[in-house]
UniProtKB/TrEMBL annotation:
Domain of life: Bacteria
Fe-S metabolism associated domain: residues covered: 15-128
Pfam families associated with the record: SufE (PF02657)
SUPFAM superfamilies xref list: SufE/NifU
Family the UniProt entry places it in: Belongs to the SufE family.
UniProt-listed Gene3D superfamilies: 3.90.1010.10
Name of the protein this chain belongs to: SufE family protein
């Protein structure tokens, strides 16, 4: 998975149509999430598209998230969010200001409000899981 900084470097040079394509490509590059994990328990509430996020804890204590969506652009947004926190410790995730990390992408101006309305809920779920594993 690319770092947010690397993605932002590329994103900043693109016109709006190419930014959409980049988001779609990021979503396609996500690690596949098995259908068996796409349950009501892993569903992120409040998203216009269906979004599932499933955390796993690695032996080194870092959290690895599997995620998917039934919408290509939304899946790309998930990839951006995960780029900020993937494979980090619960404490590092809790210390990360994810909205601030995503701010340079200015998603609210690039995408419709329907596309971005679920981002706070995705972030809240990730933070909740980090808090749960931090105990």
């Amino acid at each position: 998975m690319q770092s947010l900084d690397d993605i932002l470097d590329e994103y900043g040079f693109l016109d709006p149509d190419d930014r959409y394509r980049l988001l779609i490509d990021l979503g396609r590059a996500l690690e596949p999430m098995p259908d068996a994990l796409k349950t009501d328990a892993t569903l992120v509430r409040g998203c216009s598209a269906s979004v599932w996020v499933y955390p796993t804890r690695r032996e080194d204590g870092t959290l690895h998230f599997l995620a998917d969506s039934n919408a290509a652009i939304t899946k790309g947004i998930i990839a951006l969010v995960l780029s900020a926190v993937q494979d980090q410790s619960p404490a590092a995730i809790l210390a990360t200001d994810i909205p601030a990390a995503l701010a340079p992408f200015d998603l609210s101006k690039q995408l419709s409000s329907n596309r971005t309305q679920g981002i706070p809920n995705m972030i809240a779920l990730i933070r909740h899981e980090a808090e749960r594993y931090a105990r």
